[in-house]
């Protein structure tokens, strides 16, 4: 597939994401806690998730009829993230869809919450679109492109010291066994950066990093639909994306480190310190 095809596909996906976002926002007027289904103690879904996903999937099928799908609601019901990872690595083209990232925020009428759609080619993300619904901001990129937000080029921040950085994070609902590790990371970043934010949406964290609102972001126990679109957008915006060990297994490996290039080494060093020690040591 030619490079120009990815650009055209990205344009079509943007339209689909915007329509889904419009539907989700309209449904917020009628949704209630009676519509909530608990997938875990704090992991919820509502009917709008499933309806939006079906809407998105049907439209995406028109673009690439032979592509397979890894979509959060359907995939969770049919084998979960591990099956999704295997599918993404082996299939020619895979759509990776999170119809509503930030469902708890949505139910509480708190920003942000997003539609996230990506296309992967044998494990490489080649199109990524995130539509942040509350601000009506569409972030996007395709293979070989720059990163954009509502038609304007965006880039990661120029902050060159970890001390001056604002760090975003998240904590998965299934990560209670790693609470100590998470607490060490937050302790470090509270002491040695300008602070941390936990805003409740992995997609929004990556989109905001791509346009310079955050300088770094890390999280573990993630699924591919949490990070697929955002990882491409961050890289297209000039950022670095790796796993916790500095490798490339962030899409299917369940963990991600993303930041601007100027703070990457020290940021990764700080994260590594929390993996290897029961104390948090300054890294300069």
What would a concise description of this structure say?
The protein is an alpha+beta fold. The protein has helices at residues 3-27, 47-63, 72-77, 80-90, 103-108, 179-192, 202-210, 224-236, 264-276; strands spanning 37-38, 44-45, 68-71, 93-101, 114-121, 124-132, 137-142, 147-149, 152-154, 166-169, 195-197, 216-220, 239-242, 255-260.
Walk me through what this model shows.
It is a single chain. The chain is of the alpha+beta class. It is 40% helix and 24% strand. The strands form three sheets. It has a seven-stranded mixed β-sheet with strand order 3-4-5-6-7-8-9, with helices on both faces. Strands 11-10-12-14-13 form a five-stranded mixed β-sheet, sandwiched between helices. Strands 1-2 form a two-stranded antiparallel sheet. Helix 1 packs antiparallel against helix 2 (47-63) and helix 7 (202-210) runs parallel beside helix 8. The radius of gyration is 18 Å and the shape is globular. The model is unreliable at 278-284 (pLDDT under 50).
Give the topology string: H per helix, E per strand.
Answer: HEEHEHHEHEEEEEEHEHEHEEH
Percent strand equals 15-25%
Could you tell me the number of beta strands? 14
Low-confidence stretches are 278-284
Mean pLDDT: 88
Rounded to an integer in angstroms, the radius of gyration calculated over CA atoms is 18 Å
Tell me about the largest β-sheet. 7 strands, mixed
